[in-house]
Amino acid sequence: MNPSSSQLDSTFRRMWRWYYAVPPEKGAWVWWIGPMIVGIGAARHLTPELALLIGAALSGFMIKQPLTLVVKVMSGRRGSPDWGPGIAWTLIYTVVVSAFAAALAMAGHVRVLLTGAVGLPLFAWHLWLVSRGEERRQIVVDIAAAGVLALTAPAAYWTCGGADASVPWVVWVLTWLQSSASIVHAFLRLQQRKLKEAPSLSERWRSGVPSLLHHVLNVAVAIVLAVGGLAPALTAVAFIVPLADGIEGVMRPPVGVKPGRIGMRQLGVTSVFAGLMLIAYLV
Fold first, then answer.
1. Which of 146, 170, 177, 222 is in Cβ range 3.0-4.6 Å of 235 for a Cys bridge?
2. The overall pTM is greater than 0.70
3. How far is it, in rounded angstroms, from Cα 209 to Cα 231?
4. 137 and 235 assigned to the same domain
């Protein structure tokens, strides 16, 4: 086997590793799946075009991992063996998302595609931070990304035939608020895990103020929207679950807990929230 054939074979075998094709952030999955589920519930209807949206959203989300690896290789942060698999998966996802986007456009859902295009500048910003090795612990970027991913809510609503002018944007705001509060709380818990011992009760409450204020604000916004007839009454109940988790997190700091467990907990809480929101709109 000549060197070029051997290198190609090595690249082919490496590219099937999970690491090259799937984003490792567990919590980020629910940032777009949760809002999409709520948007479907708000529309109260299913259409064949929904499958196209799911395919486009999934492939658009997945492309982040290989493209990030490509940028890391280009900036010298990763070795050249990651170049081939990164390029291969980037091309695969690009073809797939383009095919689904074209199908959505042909089905008349151009505004759905426009919501997806909103995220391109933010993604470019993320890749720029990656090239500088500054992508970690960027809470503003994460909150903005959650807002972009939450656009699957109005996208799902429109794809499923929803016709109300305000509902898709109300669902988007509500789901983004929850994702944002989850991010702020996760950053707090990641700081707490590094402590050698649990701080005093007063210090726990002081450090938890930003997270708790965000959760309380979310409940207040949900109540105002419900009273104004812009959201179902049960939406406030959905926000109480993350608030309770936020209080528990402040009272019991996860000292020494692994980041993966923190991420899975946030994933679980946000999933419960999405489920309650779905029930609220269906009821």
1. 222
2. yes
3. 27
4. no
Separation of CA 20 from chain center:
19
- Cα-atom radius of gyration of the chain, to the nearest Å? 21
Residue-by-residue DSSP string for the chain: --HHHHHHHHHHHHTTSHHHHS---HHHHHHHHHHHHHHHHHHT---THHHHHHHHHHHHHHTHHHHHHHHHHHTTSS-GGGHHHHHHHHHHHHHHHHHHHHHHHHTT-HHHHHHHHTHHHHHHHHHHHHHTT--TT-HHHHHHHHHHHTTHHHHHHHHTT---SSHHHHHHHHHHHHHHHHHHHHHHHHHHTT-SS---HHHHHHHHHHHHHHHHHHHHHHHHHHHTTSS-TTHHHHHHHHHHHHHHHHHS--TT--HHHHHHHHHHHHHHHHHHHHHHHH-
- Determine the structural domain holding residue 148 and report its residue range: 1-163
Total tally of structural domains belonging to the chain: 2
Of the three residues 112, 145, 163, the one that is the final residue of a domain is: 163
Q: What are 14-55's pLDDT values in tens digits?
A: 767 778 888 887 778 889 999 999 999 999 999 999 999 999
Q: Which of 144, 168, 196, 132 is nearest to 31 (CA)?
A: 144
Q: Tell me, yes or no, whether 85 and 97 share the same domain.
A: yes
User: Residue holding tokens 């930003």?
Assistant: 210
157 and 199, same domain (yes or no) = no
